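To the team - manganese (II) ion complex, inputs and output below.
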Amino acid sequence: MTGSESLFTKLTAGYDESLSRGGVDGERIAQRLSELSMIGASPDGGVTRPGYSAEEKQAKQVVKSWMEQSGLQVTEDGAGNVIGRLEGIESGPAILSGSHVDSVPNGGDFDGPLGVIAALEVAEAWRETGYEPRKPYEVVVFSDEEGTRFGAGLTGSHAMAGQLTEEETNLKVDSEGKSFETVIEEYGSTLPAVWRAKRKMSEIELFVELHIEQGKLLEKHGLSVGAVKGIAGPVWMNVTFEGEAGHAGNTPMDDRRDSMVAASHFIHMVSTLPRQFSDTAVATIGKLNVFPNGVNVIPQKVELTVDIRDIHEDKRDALVEAIIEAAEQSGVSHHVDVTCQKTLTVQPLLVNEKLLTDMKESISEFGMEPMELMSGAGHDAMVVGREVPSAMLFVQSKKGISHNPEEWTDLSHCVVGIHVLKDFIEKQMERS
Ligand code: HGY
Ligand code: MN
Ligand code: MN
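Output:
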């Protein structure tokens, strides 16, 4: 079986067909998840689709074809965000729903694509049932949400929301040393076109994103879906320890400027700091490069990344300062130079109270307990949510696994989530 058939087969095995109703079609959802899972697929079942890569572009092409088949008017802005628009009976601000199709290295099949497919499935269901939305509806695919390419993500939503800064784009250099401008030109756009992607927020009434929970709470409570009440804001940093390369055999231990030892001491401190600031604070060293990386060479330089988050902005910022201090301290005690450079800072977002209540109401409509939960993971909704009222709906993740080929959400949870999303959007369509 090819990967696509195996994912489709796995998703539909034991699927309760009765959940496919009202135009929402579980098989179509499974088919589309499977089709996207083949783009950037790795042998162990993961996917790698960096932002502005050929793989992300290919995945967007596939989504565009679905949008066209579904009668949406398809456009792509200068930042590579894909928009499928359905006019409403009335004109006015649109209701947007969507997510992303780029991925982390060797990520899972649901993080991002499920939110895009869900938003499109709402339009498909309306087409099949003859429902005409009162307001314009747009399905959105945001570019480069994960930040795999440049070490700073949410690029598409930042651009659309007008939050992308020159400083942020100047910092975006990929692992081949390519600047954001070069990458965006190779992608088929231009830097001026990226700036033009800034959209009048008055054109948008609200944004809602369906996403996998990437945590264990819904599974623990036996729930398919949950209403997100807040999204933790990340600060990403590049930290470099610069010592002196030397001979591993002939350099006494007390005569070294070993950047690896300094980095290791720092990494241990980073693992202990968050709990001193708040129960919801986290910090992660996700990437580490050693130079010159030789078995018998004392490392001259170690470059690593730190991802620091909390839902409480003041505590997060205090933790960031403490982590910078720890880096400097480790540098001093190991006689190496240290530089810390922030590459991404996103404010935490509390979801619009009214929309949170509405989302919980839609969940209750399906006889489910309307659980509220916080998102430690970042999402485009926290960028758009700075400008327009935004909401998120989580669907259950198996064992909370994500950013991993083992990432999994049962098709039944996906379909239940889409029914709730559709109900939520239809209620917003009716609101004046
Ligand atoms: O990093 C995150 O929280 C998200 O997966 N982009
Ligand atoms: Mn992710
Ligand atoms: Mn995501």
